[in-house]
Known about the structure:
Elements: H1 3-16, E1 20-24, E2 31-36, E3 39-45, H2 50-64, H3 74-83
Parallel strand pairs: 1-3
Antiparallel strand pairs: 2-3
Helix pairs in contact: 1-2
Amino acid sequence: MDEQRILEELLGLLGAGNVKIRREPLGGGGGGFCTVKGEPTLFLDTEASAGESAAVCAEAVLKTVDIDSIYIRPEVRLFLESRSRHVT
Length: 88
């Protein structure tokens, strides 16, 4: 599964988890996750690569979605697990 497909899967998980997705040109850094007026929000950098954006999405998924309670494609789960050591 390529990075673009993983990104799409992660965005789907975030959307299902009621995380607002805002696509903005942010200089290519990938974006970031925060809370805006009490609403979980992911800023997705439209200038970043699919891999950078997927990494940002993975961190947001790990913070907001109970990944043990839902089905996630094996390739996406492996990507999330590889990112889990980076989440604080």
